[in-house]
Specification:
single chain; four-stranded parallel sheet; about 25% strand
Length: about 300
């Protein structure tokens, strides 16, 4: 039996083919569309999801049941002596809190280690790759969890939203504000930091929103993450709920502004996309968990 494995959920952006290649387990996240339960990548795909969303369907996110969580843990523990459970950030979902309670009970105590890492989307994807590298180095699950949780606040995502409609549906803005914003062509830039989604800036037009998000990331790298950038320990990300052509253009724009940096890109999970709507574009960064900043 192998020593340490990883279980995550579909908010990581890791699809089945990659999960099989990496040897990790991905729990599909449930959500409800007009009262019917669907599972991301299992009972509904991206195209059908966005068709329903744009047609006005009511979408509600949910967390997996304890039985579903324990089911995938049992599968992983048949292969590994211990596992790291890396669900969506505790700031965005109750999944971590539920997992922590379950992991204190037999037969999971001392074998399942939920991680409160503060990540979602591509930064979570990268953190899982980092955890796999630490597993190869022989680190225990306890040590890896300690390193990942210490690094939880060294990330940021800015998301440009094409329409206010889905923020209105989710109750994040009022119908009156959404209507006025639509008339004025207001395109918000959202900020996602350690699992908390907040408004960053309101822009006139989507092109301005894109420029604002990139400039915000540039300023962040020049200040908070300068040491990591100079040491080559900073990762740059893109994320998208837009079509392929728009996404490729967004990645090219990021690479032009940040020459020489690789840009890892994933589709935003359906659970995130139901809040941003189609057409959203994100730029993010995170610091390698093992990087030690002398100024910290």
């Amino acid at each position: 039996m192998k020593r340490t494995g990883i279980v995550t959920d579909s908010h990581s952006g890791i699809e089945k083919e990659e999960a099989d290649r990496l040897g990790i387990y991905v729990l599909p996240m449930p959500f409800y569309i007009d009262g019917s339960c669907y599972y991301e990548g299992v009972t509904i795909g991206r195209e059908e999801f966005f068709q329903k969303l744009e047609a006005g369907a009511q979408v509600q996110t949910s967390q997996p049941s304890p039985a579903e969580v324990m089911g995938v843990w049992d599968q992983a523990l048949s292969e590994y002596e211990e596992i790291l459970y890396m669900p969506i950030s505790s700031g965005l979902s109750g999944s971590y809190g539920t997992a922590r309670v379950l992991a204190e009970e037999e037969p999971y105590q001392g074998r399942v280690y939920p991680v409160d890492h503060g990540q979602v989307a591509t930064p979570l994807h990268q953190m899982i790759l980092d955890a796999l590298e630490m597993i190869k180095k022989g680190y225990s699950a306890v040590k890896i969890r300690e390193i990942l949780e210490k690094a939880r606040d060294r990330m940021m995502i800015f998301i440009c939203v094409e329409t206010l409609e889905y923020l209105k549906r989710g109750g994040r803005i009022t119908p009156a504000a959404a209507a006025l914003g639509t008339v004025l062509q207001i395109k918000p830039v959202l900020k996602l930091e350690v699992g908390k989604l907040d408004s960053y800036k309101k822009c006139h037009g989507f092109l301005k929103a894109r420029r604002t998000a990139i400039e915000a990331m540039k300023q962040l790298i020049e200040t908070k993450f300068q040491a990591a950038y100079q040491a080559g320990a900073l990762r740059l990300f893109a994320a998208s709920s837009a079509d392929e052509e728009e996404t490729e253009g967004w990645i090219a724009e990021i690479k032009r502004i940040f020459p020489g940096m690789e840009v890892m890109c994933d589709n935003l999970s359906l659970g995130v996309s139901c809040h941003t709507g189609p057409g959203a574009l994100g730029i993010g960064c995170s610091v390698c968990p093992e990087f030690e900043d002398a100024e910290e």
